[in-house]
Each structure stands twice: as structure tokens, then as C-alpha cells.
Amino acid sequence: MADFEQAASRVLPADIRDFVAGGSGAETTLDANRAAFDRVFLVPRVLRDVSACTTDATLLGRPVSMPVAVAPVAYQRLLHPDGELAVARAAKTAGVPFTVSTMSSVPVEEVTALGGSVWFQLYWLREAERSLEQVRRAEEAGCEAIVLTVDVPWMGRRLRDVRNRFTLPGQVTAVHLTGGGAPSPGSVAHRRPGDEVSAVAEHTRQAFSAALTWPTVAALREWTRLPLVLKGVLAPEDAVRAAESGVDAVVVSNHGGRQLDGAIPSIDMLEQVAGAVAGRCQVLVDSGVRGGTDVLRALALGADGVLVGRPVMWGLAAAGESGAARVLELLADELRDALGLAGCASVADAARLATVRGIPAR
After folding, report:
1. Residue 17, class by beta-carbon neighbours within 10 Å (0-12 exposed, 13-18 middle, 19+ buried)?
2. Which of 12, 195, 283, 321 is the most buried (most CB within 10 A)?
3. Phi and psi (nearest 5°) for 287?
4. Looking at the annotation, which residues are catalytic?
């Protein structure tokens, strides 16, 4: 799957490549996410019948072809003209959910019209009523879950974007935030910023609320009939409170190293979070998943599934829908291979694998 990142780098402008690849600050957490996965070693079992090895699983009460969902990623038309539509079609073919972002460059209605399983990722906006309008819009469009991102009171200081003075091209907009009193993408995210400023960061600073709290989660739980997921949880105490608030899943996530630089790698907190919630809600993980063995590592540490973002985006940039589909196909092949070689005939078997922390191979 790493081949797709190289292919994408050959076709993307440098500032757009940096926008997708980069993290916040010195990118300490960005780098640590990958190293942390590589420290997790699996203890395979032998003499198990894996002749009918399957990757089938259940996420949020619905069957999926593998315990994977495509993570929310903003502005996918930056990478390919078809943007979110191409990735949603690829996810449908793969039999996994696609998560459409509040900052999508394609309306949610066009995404759900493709007929796949779609989750809606929600950023809490300064005007609470506009956030609730987004939820209702997602429900009416046919989305199957609301994924509330809870670790972005404002965008982390992403130095690649700052140095590039990153701005969106005119044809790419956050379509869910146009009109209705929202900051106009045309006047903010598309305007060439001054020194040491990212136009996209300034846009989100104006649009997002820094006052998202637990009472808001409780109110949202009452507002929507859909499964509710909290994305951006690292502390076990927060995961427990989420479960007590009636959420259906938490995503153990440091936002792919793009928010607090110095935050602990997600995979390093997974086992504690899964133990703390003790089955009261599902536990997903993201930030650093780069292959099928990573999915198996996450399952062994207590996850019900993973979200994968950047690899799918590299596939989109390199070859549109077919590229994104190939990345997901490879991920399924690698997961099936890893399961079988570890002596697991099913995803459920993976939860019983032992793990050992070690030094990453060089």
C-alpha cells in the first residue's frame, strides 16, 4: 500500500501533498503513530483450521466485509476531481462504511445516493443550531451514523501548511458550510493568507466551536436516532464517560498526529480504553494504520475495528476510484493473510491473540 503514497507524490502539487501527509508542530506524534504500531508484535497460534478464514465483522450493528471504515478526510476534490464520490464508490465495492466529513467537497446527499454505507462526521460549529441542522441533513440523506469529532476546538498548528501559506483552489469548497451565516469559504479558505497563516486553519478557527462539552454530547444523543460515535478519545476516563453518555462507539485517535503534537500514539492507549469501557460500546482506532497487519494488531489489543484515511487518499490521488478501491482490496487481502498466518479463522479469534511490545525492526 505504501506504493500508492509514492505514486500520489508524483502527481500532486507539493502543498496539497503536504496538506494530506503533514502533522502538527514538529510532527512528533505523526511519526510516533507509525513507530508505535511497529512496536506491537503478535504471538501467532498454530494447528488451527484456517481453511475458511474470513474477515467478516460487525460495526455499529451492521455487517461489514472487514472491520474497517474509511476515515473522514476533508476536501477530497483536492486530490481528484471526483473526490468523495470516487472514494464512496470504492468503499461500497469493498463492503465497508465511508465517512463523509463536515468539510466534504461533495454534498452528503450525492454520496448517500450511491447506495453504500455512509457515516457522517460532525464538527461542532459555533452556532449549535447549525450543527443540529447538519445532523438532521445527514439523517434525511440516509447516513447510518454520526461521528462527532471531539479533539478539534481549533485546527492544530500544521507547520507545513503554514510554510506553504496553504489555501484552497477556487473549485474546492466545504459545501456543507456554504450559506446560512457560516464563514464563506470563498472569503476565508480561498484567500491567500499572510505570513505564518494557513487559510484553511483560519477558516476552521472561525467556523468551529471551542465550547464543545459533555452536556453537548448528551444533548446530541437525545437529538439523533442514529448510532453516535465520539472520535478523538485517548483517555480511558473519557471513554468511560462516553459509554455512560450512551454513545455507540469511541474512536481512539490523536487525529493522525494533526492536533496536539506530543499526544500519545493512539495504538498505545487502545488496550486501556477497551478495558475501561468493557464492552459497553464499540472501540475503534485510527492514526497510523497502514496495512492488514496493523488491523490485526488493533484487533488483538481490543479494537472492534479501525478507521483508515491517508492510504485511501493516496489511492484516490494516484488513480481515482480504481486507486482507492485497490487500496481497500489490498487491505482486505493483507488482513486475511495476517489472520490466517496468526492462526485466526475469524476476526473474533484475533481478540484472543497475545501481543508483546518490542523494538521496531529496522
Report:
1. buried
2. 283
3. 85, 85
4. 255
| Cell 451492521, residue located | 62
Instruction: In whole angstroms, give the CA distance from residue 359 to residue 29.
Output: 17
Instruction: Tell me the per-residue pLDDT of 109-139, one tens digit each, with 9 for 90 and over.
Output: 999 999 999 999 999 999 999 999 999 999 9
Q: Is 49 exposed, middle or buried (0-12, 13-18, 19+ CB in 10 A)?
A: exposed
Q: pLDDT-derived band of residue 185, with 50, 70 and 90 as boundaries?
A: very low
What global pTM score does this model have?
A: 0.95
Q: Which residues contact 45 (CB under 8 A, 6 or more apart)?
A: 342, 343, 344, 353
Residue 265 burial (CB < 10 Å; 0-12/13-18/19+)?
Answer: buried
Cβ neighbours of residue 146 under 8 Å, at least 6 residues apart? 119, 120, 122, 135, 138, 220, 224, 226, 227, 228, 229
CA distance 72 to 79: 14
| Contact in structure between 152 and 126 (CB atoms under 8 Å) | no
- Per residue in 254-274, pLDDT (tens digit) is 999 999 999 999 999 999 999
Is 186 in a helix, a strand, or coil? coil
